[in-house]
Amino acid sequence: MTQTSAKFMLSRRDVLKGAALGAGAGLLGWKTLFGISRAFAQEMSGENDDLQTIVNLAATAELFASTHYLAAINAAENGDLDLDQTQVDYLKTAFISERDHYDLLLSLGAQPVVTEFYVPDGLFSDKAMFAQITEVAETTFVSAYLAAARIFTEMGETAFAVTAAQISGVEAEHRALVRQIGMQLPNDRSYQAFQFANVSGAVPVLRPFLDGSGDGFVGPVAPPTDDEVAAIRAQSSALGYDGSIQPYAAMAPAMASSGGSESDMSGAVMVTAFGQNVNIRSMPSTTSSPVGVLAANTATAIDGQRMGDDGYTWWRVTGGGWVREDTVDEQAGAADLPMV
């Protein structure tokens, strides 16, 4: 990606009003290119986004965020972006949490609509621009997850509504830290903004980052590799990052079962962690990232199974993620669950 001395300054006001979306890129072209015409139709008609649309767009945002933060971390460590070590550590923990969110969404069947991204030229060498643009993105993410929480509530999917709120809270923390980097008051509001009725309402704001249609945008920037993700994850403990907190969607079935290994939840099949905490993995492999923890002697619902490359059966947790058969005690009926 090229960097030039010319700085493209994109104000938050301009982005939120769509001023940088590109005059030649109409709505029809966007819909045709990314195949999410239904999402736009729902936004315009007032119909709610469906579950697949929500998780696909959320996964795209999380992949973009982790790509963005990794580029900033690398620029800072190379001396191109003027950040101190504390600020770099902020970005590393933000990166890890964005990857945790992304892995959770993938475990729920999400498919990002794009996997490469574009940025304003000079973004990763100009501290003020970086703070300003990142605030725009995080403000948008917060609003999108609030929209998801509203929709999940109306669907009766309380566990997923709470999980969306959990993620929104973390995105708000990221917004605060980048405002601090930009020497702005971090906690500048009483409530996070509710800007969109639907998650798809965030797409026009983020469009320049997804297709490069904004004036002065360059790229594409490739997403992090597995090795790059692993290298920063390896610093989690030293950074003080807590990756043990579960998404509520994974906790709810166990809570509803009143702490037992048997459940009265409409025939849900449960597994119970043996006498120690068990990692809930994003994919059925011990090399995949944890997306939560099943606490010792507690239960959670499962809804499918898969044979892993390691020869073990992995159970798919209803709220997202996987646990291996030798770490849990499964309820009768687990073996009859579908292969997924």
Short description:
It contains eleven helices and nine strands. It has 340 residues and is of the alpha+beta class.
Descriptive overview:
- The structure is a single chain.
- By secondary structure, the protein is α+β, with helices and mostly antiparallel strands.
- It contains eleven helices and nine strands.
- The chain has helices spanning 12-16, 27-34, 37-45, 51-77, 85-107, 127-155, 158-181, 203-211, 226-233, 236-239, 248-256, and strands at residues 117-120, 217-221, 269-273, 278-281, 290-294, 299-307, 313-317, 322-324, 328-330.
- It has a five-stranded antiparallel sheet with strand order 8-7-6-3-9. Strands 1-2 form a two-stranded antiparallel sheet.
- The longest helix is centred in the middle third of the chain and has 29 residues, at 127-155.
- It is globular.
- 47% of the residues are buried.
- Mean pLDDT is 82; it is low at 1-45 and 258-266.
Q: Which consecutive residue ranges, at least 5 long each, have pLDDT under 50?
A: 1-45, 258-266
Number of strands: 9
Strand content: 5-15%
Quaternary status:
single chain
Protein structure class: alpha+beta
Please write the string of helix (H) and strand (E) elements.
Answer: HHHHHEHHHEHHHEEEEEEE
